[in-house]
Amino acid sequence: MKSGKDYIVFPLDFPSFGQAEKYVKLLSDRVGMFKIGLELFIREGPEVIRKTRQLSSAGIFLDLKLHDISATVQRAVRSAAELEADLLTVHCASSIRMLEAAVGAGGDKTGILGVTLLTDNDAQTVRESGFSDAYWADPAALVMKRAEMACQAGCAGVVCSGNEVQAVKHRFGADFMAVTPGIRPAGGIGGEDDQKRVCTPGRAVTLGADLIVVGRPIRDAPDPEEAAKEIAAGIDAVIL
Ligand code: C5P
C-alpha cells in the first residue's frame, strides 16, 4: 500500500551531482521519487540517472518539460525511456499530436506528465501571450483545457497546483495523476518565497494529489531527513 513517503518527490535542484549526492543518500528511504530537472541534467547528462539509481531504489522523475515538433519530442522521449526514467514532463502548450507522440514513445516504461501552466504565469502573462479573454480572466480554465488535452492523448497525468488538483481529479478520474508542486508545510521553511499558489502536504493529498514536489522545505531544513519524515507522517495522518 502507498504510504506517506511514496507521495514525496524531492527535486535534485543542484548544480552538480556532487552536491545532489548527499541528499540522494540521506533521503533515499524517505521519499518516493527524485526529480531531475534541466539544471542537473544539462550539467551531468544521462549519467545522473544511472548514478542516482546506484544509490537509491526511489523512482526517477525526469523534469525536462519538452516542447518541440512531434517527431523531435517522440525521439527525445524514446531516449528518456531507454534511460528508464519513470516519469517525464512534456508541455501541453503545443498539440495533442505532440502529446500522443510522447505517450507512444514512452510506452510502458516512461509515463508522460503534461505541464499545464507554469506557476510563474499569471493572468497578466496569459494575457500577454495572446490568449482569449476567457483564459486570462481565469487561468485555471487554461489549466483544465490543457489537462483535457493530456488526458485525451493518454498521458499518465499532469502537473498542476494545489488550486486545481481537486478539479483535475474530479473531471479526469482517479487514474489520471495529479502532481503538485508549491508545497509548504504549515509554519515550516519556505513560507516566504517565489511559490505563489501554495498548499500543505496533507491538504494537497486530501485534495487528490498523487505526488507532491517538495524541495526547499526539505533541502533547507536544519535536518532534511527529519523534515521529510515529518511530511510523510503528516500525509500518513490523512490517508490512513
Ligand atoms: O518546494 P520548492 O518550491 O523548492 O520546489 C521547487 C521545485 O518545484 C523545482 O524543481 C521546480 O521545477 C518545481 N516546480 C514544478 N512545477 C511548477 C513549479 C515548480 O515542477 N509548476
Describe the protein in words.
- With 240 residues, the chain is α/β, with parallel strands linked by helices.
- The chain is 47% helix and 15% strand.
- The chain has 12 helices and 8 strands.
- The protein has helices spanning 17-27, 38-44, 47-55, 70-82, 96-106, 123-128, 133-137, 139-153, 165-172, 201-207, 216-219, 224-239; strands at residues 8-11, 33-37, 59-66, 87-91, 111-115, 157-159, 177-180, 211-213.
- The protein has an 8-stranded parallel barrel, surrounded by 8 helices.
- Strand 1 (8-11), helix 1 and strand 2 form a beta-alpha-beta unit.
- The radius of gyration is 17 Å and the shape is globular.
- The chain starts with 7 loop residues before the first strand and ends with a helix.
- The mean pLDDT is 93.
- The site of cytidine-5'-monophosphate has 16 residues, from strand 2 and helix 11.
- Cytidine-5'-monophosphate (C5P) is lined by residues 11, 13, 35, 37, 63, 118-119, 159, 181, 183, 195, 213-217.
